[in-house]
Amino acid sequence: MSRIQVEICCGSAEDVIEAEKGGADRVELNSNLFQGGLTPTVGELIVAKAETKLPIMTMVRPREAGFFYSEIEYKTLLADAERLLEYGSDGLVFGFLTADGEVDPVRTKKLVEIAAGKPTVFHRAFDVVPDWRKSMDTLVDLGVTRILTSGQEPNVFFATDTIREMIDYANGRIEILPGAGITLKNAGRIIAETGADQIHLACHKEVSEPSVRNNRQIFYGGALYPAEDRTQLIDAAYVKNIAAIAAKM
After folding, report:
1. Which one-letter DSSP state was computed for residue 87?
2. What gap in Å lies between CA 91 and CA 209, rounded to an integer?
3. Order of strands across the sheet with 120-122?
4. Which of 10, 44, 59, 134 is 20 to 30 A off residue 38, Cα-Cα?
5. Is residue 164 classed exposed, middle or buried when 0-12, 13-18 and 19+ CB atoms within 10 A define those classes?
């Protein structure tokens, strides 16, 4: 069996650099990981490509919440996808659903066509479809490369049986990438129980941001009021430990 591939979910070019230091095989580049990951800026991609040699999959998601997009949101998404590919994206990550939560075949096919042979990933929109077997068959027919999924549970750890079923049902027709809730403590067990040949995770540490300490009453975010005196950065040492576990499987 070939070595387990480790994909790191990144929110910045600096994250990608740290992921490479830790031994990641591939990254998914986003913005706004707090809301599940949105489309990154072209600038982040340009710098990440210049500073690393990792394959960089880019998220194409114009807003938070679900995946039934307006026509304007869809046009924005298409423009972003084309520009990201122009500046070196190694593949696209996206998800389109109809109002009733089924895979939208027309919009999905369009992204596959735009990718023009580069890998395409249908992300965790897959985790809310009513019939995953039917949806998987649709994605196979449309030429999608990979499905990112938590096994339709909040955490992969609670869906290892389902992930194994998905891998068996896929039978090599499409890649299955388990992601959500994978940690150092459970990575080995999840790989063993699912039979997965790749995993997806984020592993950030807090980094001090001292410039706002003069006035702790000021917040720049929404009603959740996140702390403004710290930010998040991929923990390269954590990635290294995950990669070591994967290498032993």
Report:
1. T
2. 32
3. 175-178, 146-149, 120-122, 91-94, 56-59, 26-29, 5-10, 198-201
4. 134
5. middle
CB 224, CB 29: distance < 8 Å:
no
Find the Cα–Cα–Cα–Cα dihedral 201, 207, 213, 217, rounded to 10°: 10
Q: Which of 77, 30, 51 is nearest to 200 (CA)?
A: 30
* Residue 43 burial class via C-beta count within 10 angstroms: exposed 0-12, middle 13-18, buried 19 and up: exposed
The answer to whether the CB of 174 falls within 8 A of the CB of 231 is no
- In the block, which residue shows the tokens 């122009």? 86
Give the integer Cα–Cα distance in Å for 85 and 26.
Answer: 16
Q: How far is CA 92 from the centre of its chain?
A: 10
Separation between Cα atoms, residue 122 and residue 109, nearest integer Å: 11
Q: What is the CATH number of domain 5-205+233-248?
A: 3.20.20.380
Give the CA count within 13 Å in the CB-facing half-sphere of 189: 12
**199, two tokens:** 């995993």
Model confidence pLDDT, tens digit, residues 6-33: 999 999 999 999 999 999 999 999 999 9
Its sign, for the CA torsion 215, 218, 221, 222, is: positive
* pLDDT confidence of residue 225: 62
Q: Which amino acid is at 208?
A: S
Angle between helices 132-142 and 160-170 (to 10 degrees): 40
